[in-house]
């Protein structure tokens, strides 16, 4: 079998608020980042990220975060797509500390990968529930950028 390929599907630019710090727990340092809204653009999907989502993070060590974001995308036709996006972000602890302070860092120095899962009642968007997708992410001070690829 040939190795799978990645096909660009769409991009997400999600606006985020400052993190709500819960603090250190026995499972790591817990943070919640409210998702304020955003835009979805690309060859296979367009729409907007609705306000009200949250990115739940556990910081396992100073350079590694587990990410679990939940939010809803709405298409121009009004279809709604629930997204659960899980992954990790890691990098040198000094650069990760700069990200946490809201500073911009070189995205090539941060490994930020996620695997989104989709759920929808829209017949036109059931294709999202029938494939595996992966994302490459970039964290900016006030937003998260995700390039979403379908694994073929």
Automatic annotation (TrEMBL):
InterPro entries linked to this entry: UPF0311
Domain of life (superkingdom)? Bacteria
Note the Pfam families from the entry: DUF3237
Q: Which Gene3D superfamilies match?
A: 2.40.160.20
| Family that this chain belongs to | Belongs to the UPF0311 family.
Q: What is this protein called?
A: UPF0311 protein C6569_21145
The organism encoding this protein is Phreatobacter cathodiphilus
């Amino acid at each position: 079998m040939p190795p799978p390929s990645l096909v660009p599907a769409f991009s997400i630019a999600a606006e985020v608020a400052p993190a709500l710090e819960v603090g250190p727990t026995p499972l790591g340092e817990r943070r919640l980042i409210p998702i304020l809204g955003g835009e979805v653009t690309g060859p296979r999907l367009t729409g907007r990220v609705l306000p009200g989502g949250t990115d739940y993070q556990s910081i396992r060590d100073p350079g590694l975060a587990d990410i679990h974001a939940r939010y809803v995308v709405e298409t121009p036709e009004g279809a709604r797509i629930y997204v659960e996006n899980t992954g990790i972000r890691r990098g040198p602890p000094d650069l990760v500390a700069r990200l946490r302070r809201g500073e911009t860092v070189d995205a090539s120095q941060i490994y930020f990968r996620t695997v989104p899962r989709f759920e929808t009642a829209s017949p036109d968007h059931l294709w999202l529930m029938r494939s595996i997708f992966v994302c490459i992410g970039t964290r900016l001070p006030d937003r998260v950028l995700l390039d979403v690829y379908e694994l073929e």
